[in-house]
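fyi for ur records
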Amino acid sequence: MTLQEFGLLLISVLLSVVGQVLLKFGALKLGKVTAGNLIGHLMGIITIPELLLGLFFYGLGAMAYILLLTRVKLSVVGPSSSFIYIFSVLLGYFIFKEAIPIQRLFGLGLIVCGVVLVVWQK
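which gave:
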């Protein structure tokens, strides 16, 4: 993966993570869904700016991913996009004050090691 391709991967990952964070903010505004309020919640999605903006950023991230797929093998890009998990956990910790148990940290470390092995070139 060239530096340009890695940059495009990073843009895709960051846009997707921003989308996830905005979706979480919007979901918190929306409130907990139940069988009784499902239809109202589905209609409410189009009225909450954070949800619409989150979908927009997710879409931008998908477009960057598609552009990356024109240049890099899926067998490399697919696993590399798992960096989204790492950023999501970190932002969950820093923004939403979510706990990160030791086993989750260990799992994130395994993801990083796996991505390094997948993109490693001799």
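The chain has one domain: 3-119. thats all i got for now
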